[in-house]
Amino acid sequence: MAIRLSGMTSGLDTDSIVKAMVSSYTTRKEKYQKAQTKLEWTQDAWKSLNTKVYSLYSNISNLRFSTAYNLKKTSVSDTTKATVKAGSGAPSGTQSLKIKQMAKAGYMTGAEIKADSEKTTLAQLGYTGGDAKLEVKMGDETKSITLSASSTMNDVVKELRNAGLDANYDSSYKRFYISSKKTGVANDFTITGSNIDGASALYSLGIAYGGEKTTTGTYSSNPYDEYAALHGVSDDETRAKIEAAVTNYNNLTTDAAKMNAQSKNLMNAVNYGYSYATLQGIYEKLDANNAGDSDKLKLLEKLGSSRDGALISKNGDSYDTYTKTTLTDTNGNTLYKYIDSDNNSHYIAAVADKDKDTTSYYDVTESTRTAYTDADGKELEAVPTVVDDTTLKVGDKTYKKDEADGKYYLQKEDGTADKTDSITVSQKTEYTIAADAVNKTGIESASVAYDTIIKSMDEKTKSSYDEALASVQAFENSKDEVLGSDDKYSVASLTKAIQNAYAGNGKEAVEQLLAGNGNEADGFVNKANALEEAAEANTKKAADSNIVKELASKQKDSSEYTQALNDLLDRVNTAYTLQNKALFNSQVKKVAGQDSEIELNGVKYTGDSNSYSINGLTIEALAETGDSAISITTSTDTQGVYDKVKDFLTEYNNIINEMTKLYNADSAGSYEPLTDDEKDQMSDKEIEKWETKIKDSLLRRDSTLGSVMTAMQTAMMSSVEIGGKKYSLSSFGISTLGFLNAAENEQNAYHIDGDEDDANTSGKTDKLMAAINDDPDTVMQFMQQLSTNLYSAIGDKMKSTDLSSAFTIYNDKQMKTEYTNYTKTIKEWEKKISDREDYYYNKFTQMESAMTKLNSTQSSISSYFS
Q1: Which of the two ends of the chain, N or C, has the fewest CB atoms closer than 10 A to its terminal CB?
Q2: How far apart are CA 268 and CA 471, in angstroms?
Q3: Whose CA is closest to 814, among 38, 31, 52, 43?
């Protein structure tokens, strides 16, 4: 950079002169700066609008499905006993609910002790032992606590809380209050001593609980009895008792798992049985209309998604299936493969006649030959001469086999191999249509054959078919993880029993089998309930042996099993000692954790909380009803459906109105973004007004915005055919006000007739609510399809291209590139301005220097004449 001296000798305003001289350069730079600023504002406008359009796109995604409109409302006859919310899957109608038992958390109120404050220590309570080992057990989890004589009441509370309990010490009443954090039997707790000092510490703290004291001086719930019961006269006998308990525990849990699996299969078999009978009835109707259609359909069902690209051909009483391959014959025709009963593969070639739009199928002959390919994978035109097992010759070239990779490489004059020139020898299988091959007839496209049969069904039959087939396939394809296939309640056994029943006497025989053949106890549901109860009983018995649960989970004869057995042995011996030596506080009270129990429509449900989610209903039990029942009434939430449609239209209107306003905005004329110098001459309010004028006009008559608006409007104006009748928004009293009646830039917004919140249409008849009340299914189907149309229209505009990113309606990539180019161009012009300024300042510096020298010379001359 040149030294910039500003008129020190000449007295000229060099800065102003230079600025004027480079003004043309500065004007060019400012032109690009203004264009970049305008582009940045345009990007911001698009980003804001795109966010709103994407929000609409995301919100209407769910509106494409029936679950969005399957809104239910529910009422309870006694809200002091329960609250109920209905989900979309809840059945309409009235149901009966009994709340037999509320879930409770385990709760302990300690005995009164002599601790005047939270800082009182165990020693001050009279405890004289050493390390007091305690165990807090909650469900399957056990945590250890260690206290000492110096531990305070606060320390005890802290340790209990760390172990997962809610605990407090009330110095006013001199008691501990302890509870589990969750309700239910599985979340109940016990606190026991792991050693004599631990049991003694619990007694000093007033929380040594052993149940009620009996007349014999023992306690009804001595916490050490369960472990002590496994004690023998020797350690060997104790180990034997423990291992016997493990065997019993494993038998109980294994039997429970088996019975639960059987119960589950029986319940699923009920649905399967009715679905299977329905499906067979549909097959019979198909055969009555066109013999053999059921066999064809059964084959096509098994193909599933592989129907696309598959072919079928009738072969006697069955069908052969040909699957499309990636192979071709020697003429390039696609091959289809069929595997026969002996697991041999056969191929046919599909020869397309494009002029006639037909395809013929021919058997092909399979042959194998030796192929020679060069280094580029191209087959050699001339077959090489085989000299021996390791040498090939092509003309005067000799190729030797490399045993490492099996290829033959060109031998150079020096005897080395040229790795760039090679021949690969392989066996090539070819498929050729014989000259006398006959066009195979009766070949059908599997997907076309399937569609033809399905279309022959009426709408009701098609719906029953889809539902029954899904149920049948789900059961037949399910796998038994617990039961063997020979179990009488395995999937295979139950499937066979139901199919045999149908083969014997049709649907009636299946229904008799499921219901119990005249004996209700033999019905599948009753059998399932009986097995479930038996499994529950086993599970409860196993729970009584939970002390061996961890040991039972170990692999017998492993080191982990041996260690766990020894640990349990020590615990049993300790418990045996504590069984008689431990002291208990007779004043301590314990409320056991309790599961809740309800009956819904006569079916019992239990849980560890007071909340249930059953068949679309969310039930919160508040109080017991005893044997009295309260009623739950569920119905379609017509107002909810109406609000769903209204909310959708409101969001659409807000966006389309904004788009319309942006598209129809007034022109900004010659307004351009201001430079810093221009802003210095204006007030903040004037600047804001100036820039708003430009920003409001940025998307005026924008072709991209116009195309998005057109796509959205077209989707909203589309008609939907339901049950052979066409519907549009106007069919439900929803329309625009038109250009003459609508407010400015709101001519594309939709209004609902009879909407009390809309001053334009509130006085009209509410056709939408009437339609929802009279025929909600039609309204829902229409809104689903309309939402799908709008979703697709917006989605098409948001697809990724070379100019735009995914989920973006404008050319953001292009704008980003343009912005970067502007930045680069502006820097180039800044460099040009700087270089030009340096050039002029250098000239002025030279002038100043010359004038300084001249002045100095003049001064010297003048001094001679002074």
Answers
A1: C
A2: 9
A3: 43
